Amino acid sequence: MKRCFLITLLLLLFCSLCASEFEKLKALDEQGLQNPDLYYNLGVTYWQTGQSGMASLYFLKALHLDSAHKAARENLNYSIRLSKDRDLYPQRLFLVRVFLEVYDFMNMNRMAVLNLGLLILSSLSLLWYINYDPAKERGLPGLVLGTMLCLLLISVSVSAFKAYRIKGNRQAVLLEESAELRENPEDSAKRVATIHEGVILDIRKTAGDWLFVNLPNGDGGWINGELVGRVRQ
Amino acid sequence: MKRVIFAIICLMPFVLAGISVDASVNKTRLSQTDRLEYTIRIRSNNRFDLSEPKAPEIELFSFVSTRSSSRSISTLSGLRSEREYIRTFTYIYIPLKVGSTQVPAQRIRVGNKVYSTNPISITVIKSSAPPSQGSSNALGGNAIVDPYASWQGGRMTGTTMILALPKRQTVYKGQPTIVSYYLYTDQMVRSFSLNNEQDFPGYGKSPFEQPNSLDYEVVNHQGKRFQRALIKQIVLSPNATGELRAPEISGSARIYEFGYMSQTVRSEDAWLDVLPLPEPQNIQGFTGAVGNFKLSYEISADEISLGEAVTLSLRISGRGNFNQFGNPSFPESDAQVSSPTSVDNLKAGIEGSRTLYYTIVPSEKGTYSLPALRFAWFDPALRSYREYCTKAQPIKVQSANVISYFSGLLDGGKAQTLRPMIARDMYPPYRNLMSRFWYWLLAALVLGATGVGLYFSLLRIKRQREPEAYARLMADKVLQKFLRDSKTANNTDFYRIAESNLMRYLSQKYGIANGLSTPQKMELLANMNIPAGLITETQAFIDNCERHRFSPQQASADDIGRDILLLQSIVSAYSRLGGVK
């Protein structure tokens, strides 16, 4: 019996030594560790093994945690450019892209620091305004105070909006080579569209195992939930 | 020992769970004109990673090509849905000789485990019939349809033949060459239907051109006048040295000679002499390229911020065996470098350009030395190796800043390659600042400090704008404190605290100097139109306090309770009077 145990132990040790970097990353992920670099590296590895759906899913997971993860954003864009459904993604105007870049750059941690900084500046502005020489015109301190309060309000609102979006992230990715979107949540329902691995979906509602999803171009349809991976479980 | 074997047998199902590997062939008995398709199929209930296994070497056969596919199947088993992932690799061979052979057992590695297939016995027999129509379709089909192909006549008087004309008779191993198939005729050939294409060992091939119609030109062949039309052009890339036989094509020509009739025509034998490549000496970066190439390179930036990528694009253009050589490997350097992505613009895999994109992410700020990338090839025209080397170049790597994040905005973020993995020894859990206690403590401190600052600022403003109201406010505060202190004091301290605080209160409220004696303070109060009764009452309380302070006996609780009430009534009376007039 001791020998059996010893052999089992040796086999397990051997398997663990053979485990590749990929398996180590997967093990960390299965332990529930949340780290954008871990998700990014998993995405790159999945891409290298030909699983573009899983790659996109993990790039999205990295961006879910840290929207300013530039490498994950670039690799996701690269994956989208090579996907069969790339035409489904809308072409955005330059100014919209600029806005979205800034929005993504300001991840939750940067927003937190910005909020704190603006709070301090607003407090100082308020004290400056109140203690300003009453004999003088209060135009400048008033302007500074008003600006700071506006910025603080905007910053807090954006933070709240981002937190709401992160908490309610409904993104998912198709993991199969292809799948059909249907009019109703059943296999026999009329086909709406055929989509391919890696396409990013927005889950709107669920009915049992079926999900009603929106494609990047806004079209919607039902898909079996087992075929997709959700960014936020 | 038995126990050990028993333990291993018990563990085997866990190790091998879920994956099955099998091999099969399309025919175990085939003729010389048939093709052998050897298929390896891997099934699993889970997704698995697998690179393409090497084509097995089979005696009597020559390997032609391979193809692979992957699919997944969902099945309903009761209430459960089961999914099966299947990957298939098919290897195509052509027989070289008649005889019996065996496809050896293949060892397939899936993950960390190795699976083995069964060997399969194959018998090749002599072909007894010409190739069928079905097999020709599989090889590419024809472009010129002949509806009368089944009807054959035997009354023809002229000559119709197919000649295979290699562009070069002598080539080097790997050097692609075009073989043109011409229909030569002195008859009225209206159309030609290509039926079959037989391959021989020693080359890889790809179609180059196949016209849709017979476009004749007049030529002399062996002293006789013919008209000829191009039927097909094929690119051959020799992968063995020695004599190489070009593919043989056959088809039926529709000839008009007092009525339409069909004639089966087969191309005449054509041979190429394949020379071995000379031994590369002191050549770095040779990956098997043979041809006539021109190279250029481009670097996306010579100054970047840390974390950004610089892209080196190497463009290889010209004519050569693009489909047979590998990408040059990037030299070791202090940066993360992706596998190159190639973008081809090729005709038949031999002519055009290939651009390789290398993404390089320097790992440290400062100056990164971009190493020289070498690419070598054999030039058949010069009969020697040539080498191209990009210039080693310093790349300035600055600290990352906010602007560097937006550097990809203008080009629409169109990365040419996948960015490589990030080197990390550890992956600490990602924490949101807003979920940390100290963040909110800091925010509360800022808000608290602001509140305190506001309070004192407002007091200061009040003192400047309304000094009386401010004085009253301060006096009320002192009073509150004084009453609080008096109530909590013990017997001996009560009168001392009561007296001093009452005097402080009066000083604060009416601006009386603290250094004056009690009678002087009372006199000043009298001058301030304070009612005489209140002054008398105050004087009496102070006298009472002094008496108790210097008395050897302690005051009783009743005395203190009574005096507290008295003190409160005095202070209330002063409060009602207002401040300094």
In short:
Chain A is of the alpha+beta class and 233 residues long. Helices cover 57% and strands 15% of the residues of chain A. The mean pLDDT of chain A is 88.
Describe what you observe in this structure:
The complex is a heterodimer of chains A (233) and B (581). With 233 residues, chain A is of the alpha+beta class. Among the domains of chain A are: 106-167; 171-230, Roll (SH3 type barrels), CATH 2.30.30.40. Chain A has helices spanning 2-18, 21-30, 36-48, 52-65, 70-82, 94-105, 108-131, 139-167, and strands spanning 171-174, 178-182, 191-196, 200-207, 210-214, 220-224, 228-230. In chain A, the strands form two sheets. Chain A has a five-stranded antiparallel sheet with strand order 6-5-4-1-7. In chain A, strands 2-3 form a two-stranded antiparallel sheet. In chain A, strand 4 and strand 5 (210-214) form a beta hairpin. The radius of gyration of chain A is 25 Å and the shape is extended. The two termini of chain A are 42 Å apart. Chain B is an alpha+beta fold and 581 residues long. Chain B has four domains: 17-125, Sandwich (Immunoglobulin-like); 133-275, Immunoglobulin-like, CATH 2.60.40; 292-405, Immunoglobulin-like (Sandwich), CATH 2.60.40; 457-577. Helix content of chain B is 25%, strand content 39%. Chain B has nine helices and 30 strands. Chain B has helices at 2-16, 133-138, 402-405, 437-465, 467-488, 491-510, 518-527, 532-550, 557-577, and strands spanning 19-25, 29-31, 36-44, 61-77, 80-95, 99-103, 107-110, 113-116, 120-125, 160-166, 170-172, 177-185, 189-198, 203-209, 216-221, 224-238, 242-245, 248-256, 260-266, 271-275, 286-299, 303-305, 310-320, 335-337, 341-347, 351-362, 366-370, 374-379, 384-389, 393-398. Chain B is rod-shaped and about 155 Å long. The model of chain B is unreliable at 13-17 and 128-155 (pLDDT under 50). At the A-B interface, helix 1, helix 3, helix 5, helix 6 and helix 7 of A face helix 1, strand 4 and helix 4 of B.
